[in-house]
Specification:
This protein has 60 residues and is mainly alpha-helical. The protein contains 3 helices and no strands. It is extended, with a radius of gyration of 15 Å. The relative contact order is 0.07.
């Protein structure tokens, strides 16, 4: 359990990674991602991961 807890990202780490990804997309592809788009993508990814969990798996 401790190993899992240590491997999860803090809110600050998630924000930093999101900002790096936004900067990369803007610099390399000219794509500006809004906060709303980022939040919507995050929800879609969480929903998809939740659907793929095996039966009986604990939800995070």
């Amino acid at each position: 359990m401790q190993e899992f807890a240590e491997s999860t990202l803090t809110d600050e780490e998630r924000r930093e990674r999101a900002e790096r990804a936004r900067a990369y997309l803007a610099e390399n592809f000219g794509v500006e991602v809004t906060d709303e788009e980022s939040a919507a993508m995050g929800r879609r990814l969480r929903d998809e991961f939740a659907r793929r969990q095996p039966p009986g798996a604990a939800a995070a």
